[in-house]
Amino acid sequence: MQIQVNSNHSIDTGESFERWATTELNESFSRFKDEITRIEVHMSDENGDKISADHKRCMLEARLVNREPVAVDHQAASQDEAFRGASDKLKRVLEHTLGKLRDHRARESIRHEADLGNA
Description:
globular; single chain; four-stranded mixed beta sheet; alpha+beta
């Protein structure tokens, strides 16, 4: 699973943020590592130099194996809060999306039930 961190010109993520984000995502999404090829992080400051609440935005996009990409975003007062909020949202979306797929694969078909022929 690859991690790619991007930012626009209005926010400086820096090398330390990229290392931290990569570590956090690898740990948080390790159980999905076989289903995710890449996670892209897009950080931005929605208001530039203006001061306002919830102006940092983090958009996370997970590229899944043989499925459409999944994207979420979160706005907060700081980069850290925006990143953590988006990460939590992505985790819920992946649990829902991939959990349904796993549940479907784990079920047995009624065609294989032995009692069906005796009924």
